[in-house]
Amino acid sequence: MEVSNEKLISLIFLILFTFVIAGCSYNERPITVRSGLSGDAENIEYSQPQAGQLTASEWSDLKNYEFFLSLFKGTQESGEGIFTKSFNKGYFDTLNMVTVQVKNNDLYIGGASVELADEFGRTIYKAITNLNGYAYLFPQTKDLDSISKIIIHHKDKVISNQYRYSLDNNTLIMNINSENNHEPVIEIMFVVDTTGSMGDEISYLKSEIDYVINEVKTSNENTTINLALLFYRDKGDSYITKYFDFTTNIEEQRENLAKQEAAGGGDYEEAVDIALDEAVSKNWSNKNTTKLLFHVLDAPPHYNQEDMTRFFNAICVASEKGIRMIPVASSGVNKYTEYLLRNEAMMTGGTYVFLTNDSGIGEDHIEASVGETEVEYLNHLLVRLINEYHTGVEGEKIPYYSIEE
Known about the structure:
This protein is an alpha/beta fold. The chain folds into 3 domains: 5-49, no CATH class; 55-60 and 182-402, Rossmann fold (3-Layer(aba) Sandwich); 93-175, Immunoglobulin-like (Sandwich), CATH 2.60.40. 27% of the residues lie in helices and 28% in strands. The chain is built from 9 helices and 18 strands. The chain has helices spanning 5-21, 65-70, 84-88, 202-219, 250-258, 272-280, 305-321, 335-347, 378-391, and strands at residues 28-38, 40-49, 55-59, 98-104, 107-108, 113-117, 123-128, 134-137, 149-154, 157-162, 171-175, 185-193, 224-232, 241-247, 290-297, 324-329, 352-355, 376-377. It has an 8-stranded mixed sheet with strand order 14-13-12-15-16-17-3-18, sandwiched between helices. Strands 4, 5, 8 and 11 form a 4-stranded mixed sheet that branches. A hairpin with an 8-residue loop joins β13 and β14. α4 (202-219) packs parallel to α9. The longest helix has 18 residues, at 202-219. The radius of gyration is 23 Å and the shape is globular. The two termini are 44 Å apart.
Protein backbone atom coordinates (compact mmCIF):
# COMPACT_ATOMS: atom_id res chain seq x y z
CA MET A 1 0.00 0.00 0.00
CA GLU A 2 1.37 3.41 -0.97
CA VAL A 3 1.58 6.20 1.54
CA SER A 4 1.68 9.76 0.18
CA ASN A 5 4.53 12.07 1.11
CA GLU A 6 2.08 14.31 2.97
CA LYS A 7 0.80 11.40 5.07
CA LEU A 8 4.32 10.20 5.72
CA ILE A 9 5.45 13.62 6.93
CA SER A 10 2.33 13.86 9.13
CA LEU A 11 3.08 10.45 10.61
CA ILE A 12 6.64 11.40 11.47
CA PHE A 13 5.53 14.64 13.13
CA LEU A 14 2.89 12.72 15.09
CA ILE A 15 5.51 10.33 16.44
CA LEU A 16 7.84 13.18 17.41
CA PHE A 17 4.98 15.05 19.05
CA THR A 18 4.07 11.96 21.06
CA PHE A 19 7.62 11.71 22.41
CA VAL A 20 7.58 15.36 23.46
CA ILE A 21 4.24 14.99 25.25
CA ALA A 22 5.43 11.83 27.00
CA GLY A 23 8.37 13.77 28.39
CA CYS A 24 11.04 11.61 26.71
CA SER A 25 14.03 13.89 27.05
CA TYR A 26 17.50 12.55 26.25
CA ASN A 27 20.54 13.54 24.25
CA GLU A 28 20.19 12.40 20.69
CA ARG A 29 22.26 11.66 17.64
CA PRO A 30 20.83 11.17 14.16
CA ILE A 31 21.14 7.80 12.43
CA THR A 32 19.78 6.63 9.11
CA VAL A 33 17.49 3.63 8.65
CA ARG A 34 15.68 2.05 5.74
CA SER A 35 11.93 2.46 5.56
CA GLY A 36 9.57 0.32 3.52
CA LEU A 37 6.45 2.38 4.15
CA SER A 38 6.02 3.50 0.54
CA GLY A 39 7.05 0.35 -1.28
CA ASP A 40 10.27 2.00 -2.46
CA ALA A 41 13.08 2.06 0.12
CA GLU A 42 13.67 5.53 1.56
CA ASN A 43 16.26 6.88 3.94
CA ILE A 44 14.60 8.37 7.02
CA GLU A 45 16.58 10.00 9.78
CA TYR A 46 15.60 9.46 13.41
CA SER A 47 17.34 9.69 16.76
CA GLN A 48 18.77 7.19 19.22
CA PRO A 49 20.19 7.80 22.69
CA GLN A 50 23.60 9.34 22.99
CA ALA A 51 26.18 7.80 25.32
CA GLY A 52 26.74 9.27 28.75
CA GLN A 53 23.25 8.98 30.22
CA LEU A 54 23.01 5.72 32.13
CA THR A 55 24.28 6.01 35.69
CA ALA A 56 25.97 3.25 37.66
CA SER A 57 28.10 2.44 40.66
CA GLU A 58 30.88 -0.06 41.24
CA TRP A 59 31.45 -2.16 44.35
CA SER A 60 34.40 -4.47 44.95
CA ASP A 61 33.68 -7.27 47.42
CA LEU A 62 37.35 -8.23 47.17
CA LYS A 63 38.31 -4.89 48.69
CA ASN A 64 35.37 -4.99 51.13
CA TYR A 65 35.34 -8.66 52.04
CA GLU A 66 34.38 -8.21 55.69
CA PHE A 67 31.36 -6.20 54.56
CA PHE A 68 30.40 -9.05 52.20
CA LEU A 69 30.60 -11.56 55.07
CA SER A 70 28.40 -9.30 57.21
CA LEU A 71 25.55 -9.82 54.72
CA PHE A 72 25.19 -13.41 55.96
CA LYS A 73 24.89 -12.50 59.63
CA GLY A 74 21.40 -12.62 61.07
CA THR A 75 19.70 -9.57 62.51
CA GLN A 76 17.64 -9.55 65.68
CA GLU A 77 14.51 -8.84 63.64
CA SER A 78 14.87 -11.37 60.81
CA GLY A 79 17.19 -13.96 62.27
CA GLU A 80 19.07 -14.17 58.98
CA GLY A 81 21.30 -12.04 56.78
CA ILE A 82 20.40 -10.40 53.48
CA PHE A 83 22.12 -13.15 51.49
CA THR A 84 21.39 -16.10 53.79
CA LYS A 85 18.52 -17.46 51.68
CA SER A 86 20.59 -17.10 48.52
CA PHE A 87 23.49 -18.96 50.13
CA ASN A 88 21.17 -21.75 51.25
CA LYS A 89 20.07 -22.33 47.65
CA GLY A 90 23.50 -23.87 47.12
CA TYR A 91 26.18 -23.88 44.40
CA PHE A 92 28.08 -20.86 45.71
CA ASP A 93 30.19 -20.77 48.85
CA THR A 94 32.56 -17.80 48.89
CA LEU A 95 32.91 -17.45 52.66
CA ASN A 96 36.55 -18.65 52.85
CA MET A 97 38.62 -16.31 50.69
CA VAL A 98 42.37 -16.92 50.57
CA THR A 99 44.38 -13.93 49.32
CA VAL A 100 47.84 -14.59 47.91
CA GLN A 101 50.19 -11.87 46.71
CA VAL A 102 53.04 -13.03 44.49
CA LYS A 103 56.20 -10.92 44.39
CA ASN A 104 59.84 -10.99 43.41
CA ASN A 105 61.19 -8.92 46.29
CA ASP A 106 59.57 -5.50 45.64
CA LEU A 107 58.30 -6.41 42.17
CA TYR A 108 54.66 -7.50 41.84
CA ILE A 109 54.22 -10.53 39.60
CA GLY A 110 51.06 -10.42 37.48
CA GLY A 111 49.86 -13.34 35.39
CA ALA A 112 51.05 -16.01 37.84
CA SER A 113 48.89 -19.09 38.37
CA VAL A 114 48.11 -19.70 42.05
CA GLU A 115 46.57 -23.02 42.98
CA LEU A 116 45.24 -24.57 46.16
CA ALA A 117 45.69 -28.34 45.96
CA ASP A 118 45.14 -31.44 48.09
CA GLU A 119 47.81 -33.97 49.06
CA PHE A 120 47.32 -35.83 45.75
CA GLY A 121 47.89 -32.67 43.70
CA ARG A 122 44.24 -32.25 42.73
CA THR A 123 43.17 -28.65 42.21
CA ILE A 124 40.74 -27.23 44.74
CA TYR A 125 40.81 -23.68 43.39
CA LYS A 126 42.97 -21.82 40.88
CA ALA A 127 43.29 -18.12 40.06
CA ILE A 128 45.63 -15.77 38.17
CA THR A 129 47.36 -12.82 39.81
CA ASN A 130 46.50 -9.30 38.71
CA LEU A 131 49.09 -6.60 37.96
CA ASN A 132 49.51 -5.93 41.68
CA GLY A 133 50.35 -9.58 42.25
CA TYR A 134 47.06 -10.56 43.94
CA ALA A 135 45.17 -13.79 43.41
CA TYR A 136 41.87 -14.43 45.16
CA LEU A 137 40.94 -18.04 45.83
CA PHE A 138 37.61 -19.38 47.11
CA PRO A 139 37.76 -22.93 48.45
CA GLN A 140 34.37 -24.22 49.57
CA THR A 141 33.83 -25.02 53.23
CA LYS A 142 33.62 -28.76 52.51
CA ASP A 143 37.12 -28.67 50.96
CA LEU A 144 38.99 -26.68 53.62
CA ASP A 145 40.40 -29.70 55.44
CA SER A 146 41.65 -31.17 52.14
CA ILE A 147 43.95 -28.25 51.31
CA SER A 148 47.59 -29.24 51.79
CA LYS A 149 49.64 -27.01 49.48
CA ILE A 150 49.87 -23.84 47.42
CA ILE A 151 51.44 -24.16 43.98
CA ILE A 152 52.57 -21.14 41.96
CA HIS A 153 53.52 -21.14 38.27
CA HIS A 154 54.96 -18.18 36.39
CA LYS A 155 56.75 -18.57 33.07
CA ASP A 156 59.15 -21.48 33.66
CA LYS A 157 59.24 -21.09 37.46
CA VAL A 158 57.29 -23.29 39.88
CA ILE A 159 57.16 -23.20 43.67
CA SER A 160 55.13 -25.39 45.99
CA ASN A 161 54.61 -24.75 49.71
CA GLN A 162 52.76 -26.75 52.33
CA TYR A 163 49.62 -24.92 53.46
CA ARG A 164 46.77 -25.45 55.89
CA TYR A 165 43.79 -23.13 55.82
CA SER A 166 42.79 -21.16 58.91
CA LEU A 167 41.27 -17.75 59.57
CA ASP A 168 44.68 -16.67 60.87
CA ASN A 169 46.42 -17.92 57.74
CA ASN A 170 44.28 -16.78 54.81
CA THR A 171 46.41 -13.84 53.62
CA LEU A 172 49.85 -14.71 52.30
CA ILE A 173 52.79 -13.17 50.46
CA MET A 174 54.88 -15.54 48.38
CA ASN A 175 58.09 -14.82 46.51
CA ILE A 176 59.11 -16.31 43.18
CA ASN A 177 62.29 -15.64 41.22
CA SER A 178 60.65 -14.46 38.01
CA GLU A 179 60.10 -11.33 35.93
CA ASN A 180 56.93 -9.66 34.71
CA ASN A 181 55.83 -10.47 31.16
CA HIS A 182 52.54 -8.58 30.85
CA GLU A 183 51.79 -7.78 27.22
CA PRO A 184 50.24 -4.55 25.81
CA VAL A 185 47.06 -6.37 24.79
CA ILE A 186 43.51 -5.97 26.11
CA GLU A 187 41.05 -8.75 25.34
CA ILE A 188 37.46 -7.62 25.93
CA MET A 189 34.28 -9.60 25.51
CA PHE A 190 30.82 -8.12 26.03
CA VAL A 191 28.28 -10.81 26.93
CA VAL A 192 24.84 -9.19 26.67
CA ASP A 193 21.35 -10.44 27.51
CA THR A 194 19.14 -9.39 24.57
CA THR A 195 15.80 -10.82 25.76
CA GLY A 196 12.67 -8.69 25.75
CA SER A 197 13.01 -7.62 29.38
CA MET A 198 16.15 -5.69 28.43
CA GLY A 199 14.08 -3.55 26.05
CA ASP A 200 13.81 -0.59 28.44
CA GLU A 201 17.59 -0.07 28.44
CA ILE A 202 19.10 -1.95 25.49
CA SER A 203 19.32 1.04 23.12
CA TYR A 204 21.04 3.10 25.81
CA LEU A 205 23.38 0.23 26.69
CA LYS A 206 24.34 -0.15 23.04
CA SER A 207 25.31 3.53 22.91
CA GLU A 208 27.28 3.26 26.16
CA ILE A 209 29.15 0.14 25.02
CA ASP A 210 29.84 1.72 21.64
CA TYR A 211 31.39 4.71 23.40
CA VAL A 212 33.50 2.47 25.63
CA ILE A 213 34.80 0.46 22.69
CA ASN A 214 35.79 3.60 20.78
CA GLU A 215 37.28 5.39 23.80
CA VAL A 216 39.43 2.44 24.87
CA LYS A 217 40.76 2.11 21.34
CA THR A 218 41.63 5.79 21.03
CA SER A 219 43.12 6.17 24.52
CA ASN A 220 45.40 3.12 24.26
CA GLU A 221 47.32 3.84 21.06
CA ASN A 222 50.19 1.50 21.91
CA THR A 223 47.90 -1.33 23.00
CA THR A 224 46.25 -3.97 20.85
CA ILE A 225 42.50 -4.23 21.50
CA ASN A 226 40.89 -7.58 20.71
CA LEU A 227 37.12 -7.36 20.97
CA ALA A 228 34.46 -10.08 20.96
CA LEU A 229 30.67 -9.87 21.34
CA LEU A 230 28.31 -12.57 22.56
CA PHE A 231 24.56 -11.98 22.72
CA TYR A 232 22.18 -14.42 24.34
CA ARG A 233 18.51 -15.07 24.97
CA ASP A 234 16.91 -18.33 26.11
CA LYS A 235 15.97 -21.79 24.90
CA GLY A 236 13.09 -21.59 22.44
CA ASP A 237 13.95 -18.08 21.24
CA SER A 238 15.16 -17.22 17.74
CA TYR A 239 18.67 -17.87 19.03
CA ILE A 240 20.26 -18.92 22.30
CA THR A 241 23.62 -17.29 21.57
CA LYS A 242 24.95 -15.13 18.76
CA TYR A 243 28.71 -14.71 18.67
CA PHE A 244 31.18 -12.39 16.94
CA ASP A 245 34.74 -13.60 17.48
CA PHE A 246 37.75 -11.66 18.77
CA THR A 247 39.05 -9.16 16.26
CA THR A 248 41.07 -5.98 16.13
CA ASN A 249 38.55 -4.61 13.61
CA ILE A 250 36.74 -2.39 16.09
CA GLU A 251 34.53 -0.69 13.49
CA GLU A 252 33.17 -4.04 12.37
CA GLN A 253 32.28 -4.95 15.95
CA ARG A 254 30.60 -1.59 16.49
CA GLU A 255 28.41 -2.33 13.47
CA ASN A 256 27.59 -5.80 14.85
CA LEU A 257 26.61 -4.22 18.15
CA ALA A 258 24.36 -1.63 16.50
CA LYS A 259 22.28 -4.34 14.80
CA GLN A 260 21.18 -6.06 18.02
CA GLU A 261 17.66 -5.74 19.43
CA ALA A 262 15.85 -7.01 22.51
CA ALA A 263 13.25 -9.76 21.98
CA GLY A 264 12.22 -13.17 23.24
CA GLY A 265 12.54 -14.47 26.76
CA GLY A 266 9.13 -14.96 28.31
CA ASP A 267 10.07 -16.08 31.80
CA TYR A 268 12.40 -14.43 34.29
CA GLU A 269 15.40 -16.76 34.01
CA GLU A 270 17.55 -16.80 30.86
CA ALA A 271 20.31 -18.93 29.30
CA VAL A 272 23.02 -17.26 31.37
CA ASP A 273 24.83 -20.55 31.97
CA ILE A 274 24.98 -21.47 28.28
CA ALA A 275 26.24 -18.00 27.38
CA LEU A 276 29.03 -17.95 29.96
CA ASP A 277 30.02 -21.55 29.27
CA GLU A 278 30.44 -20.61 25.63
CA ALA A 279 32.11 -17.28 26.42
CA VAL A 280 34.96 -18.70 28.52
CA SER A 281 35.67 -21.42 25.95
CA LYS A 282 36.30 -18.95 23.12
CA ASN A 283 39.66 -17.98 21.69
CA TRP A 284 41.16 -16.16 24.68
CA SER A 285 44.94 -16.10 24.43
CA ASN A 286 47.23 -18.11 26.69
CA LYS A 287 49.51 -15.11 27.11
CA ASN A 288 49.74 -12.67 30.00
CA THR A 289 47.28 -10.11 28.68
CA THR A 290 44.43 -8.12 30.22
CA LYS A 291 41.31 -10.28 29.89
CA LEU A 292 37.94 -8.70 30.71
CA LEU A 293 34.41 -10.07 30.30
CA PHE A 294 31.60 -7.54 30.78
CA HIS A 295 28.35 -9.37 31.49
CA VAL A 296 25.30 -7.13 30.92
CA LEU A 297 22.04 -8.67 32.17
CA ASP A 298 18.89 -8.41 34.23
CA ALA A 299 18.07 -12.05 35.13
CA PRO A 300 19.70 -15.20 36.58
CA PRO A 301 20.13 -18.64 35.02
CA HIS A 302 17.37 -21.22 35.39
CA TYR A 303 17.49 -22.76 38.85
CA ASN A 304 18.13 -26.45 38.23
CA GLN A 305 21.16 -28.63 38.82
CA GLU A 306 22.35 -28.80 35.21
CA ASP A 307 22.14 -25.08 34.52
CA MET A 308 23.49 -23.92 37.87
CA THR A 309 26.41 -26.37 37.70
CA ARG A 310 27.25 -25.14 34.20
CA PHE A 311 27.08 -21.54 35.45
CA PHE A 312 29.36 -22.29 38.42
CA ASN A 313 31.87 -24.22 36.30
CA ALA A 314 32.09 -21.43 33.72
CA ILE A 315 33.07 -19.00 36.48
CA CYS A 316 35.76 -21.40 37.73
CA VAL A 317 37.17 -21.73 34.20
CA ALA A 318 37.29 -17.93 33.92
CA SER A 319 39.23 -17.77 37.19
CA GLU A 320 41.73 -20.35 35.95
CA LYS A 321 42.26 -18.43 32.69
CA GLY A 322 42.57 -15.01 34.33
CA ILE A 323 39.36 -13.70 32.74
CA ARG A 324 37.98 -10.99 35.05
CA MET A 325 34.18 -11.03 34.98
CA ILE A 326 32.52 -7.66 35.49
CA PRO A 327 28.73 -8.00 35.66
CA VAL A 328 26.64 -4.94 34.81
CA ALA A 329 23.31 -5.41 36.60
CA SER A 330 20.40 -3.74 34.81
CA SER A 331 16.82 -3.01 35.88
CA GLY A 332 14.90 -6.11 36.94
CA VAL A 333 17.76 -7.69 38.89
CA ASN A 334 16.49 -9.13 42.17
CA LYS A 335 18.44 -9.82 45.35
CA TYR A 336 19.25 -13.45 44.42
CA THR A 337 20.61 -12.35 41.03
CA GLU A 338 22.70 -9.69 42.77
CA TYR A 339 24.12 -12.42 45.00
CA LEU A 340 25.03 -14.58 42.00
CA LEU A 341 26.63 -11.69 40.14
CA ARG A 342 28.71 -10.61 43.09
CA ASN A 343 30.00 -14.17 43.39
CA GLU A 344 30.73 -14.18 39.66
CA ALA A 345 32.79 -11.02 40.07
CA MET A 346 34.66 -12.06 43.22
CA MET A 347 35.56 -15.55 42.05
CA THR A 348 37.25 -14.19 38.91
CA GLY A 349 39.00 -11.20 40.45
CA GLY A 350 36.43 -8.83 38.98
CA THR A 351 34.10 -6.21 40.41
CA TYR A 352 30.34 -5.62 40.58
CA VAL A 353 28.73 -2.83 38.53
CA PHE A 354 25.06 -1.93 38.86
CA LEU A 355 22.86 0.64 37.15
CA THR A 356 21.12 3.18 39.36
CA ASN A 357 17.90 5.19 39.20
CA ASP A 358 19.75 8.52 39.01
CA SER A 359 19.51 8.61 35.21
CA GLY A 360 15.72 8.19 35.23
CA ILE A 361 16.08 5.67 32.39
CA GLY A 362 14.52 2.22 32.40
CA GLU A 363 12.51 0.40 35.01
CA ASP A 364 13.33 0.52 38.72
CA HIS A 365 16.75 -0.66 39.86
CA ILE A 366 16.91 -2.33 43.27
CA GLU A 367 19.16 -0.80 45.87
CA ALA A 368 22.32 -2.89 46.04
CA SER A 369 23.39 -4.20 49.45
CA VAL A 370 26.70 -2.37 49.46
CA GLY A 371 28.49 0.34 51.38
CA GLU A 372 28.95 3.91 50.24
CA THR A 373 29.64 4.22 46.51
CA GLU A 374 30.06 6.97 43.94
CA VAL A 375 27.44 7.23 41.20
CA GLU A 376 29.16 7.68 37.83
CA TYR A 377 28.14 7.71 34.22
CA LEU A 378 28.32 4.11 33.05
CA ASN A 379 30.49 4.82 30.01
CA HIS A 380 33.15 6.62 32.06
CA LEU A 381 32.98 3.97 34.76
CA LEU A 382 33.65 1.12 32.31
CA VAL A 383 36.52 2.95 30.64
CA ARG A 384 38.00 3.60 34.08
CA LEU A 385 37.79 -0.09 34.99
CA ILE A 386 39.40 -1.25 31.74
CA ASN A 387 42.33 1.12 32.28
CA GLU A 388 42.65 0.05 35.93
CA TYR A 389 42.86 -3.63 35.09
CA HIS A 390 45.32 -2.95 32.28
CA THR A 391 47.66 -0.68 34.27
CA GLY A 392 47.15 -1.78 37.88
CA VAL A 393 46.57 1.86 38.82
CA GLU A 394 43.23 3.00 40.28
CA GLY A 395 41.53 5.78 38.37
CA GLU A 396 39.46 8.65 39.70
CA LYS A 397 35.73 8.09 40.22
CA ILE A 398 33.98 11.12 38.76
CA PRO A 399 30.44 11.76 40.07
CA TYR A 400 27.92 11.94 37.24
CA TYR A 401 26.48 15.24 38.45
CA SER A 402 29.88 16.97 38.25
CA ILE A 403 30.23 16.43 34.50
CA GLU A 404 28.93 19.27 32.37
CA GLU A 405 26.74 18.20 29.49
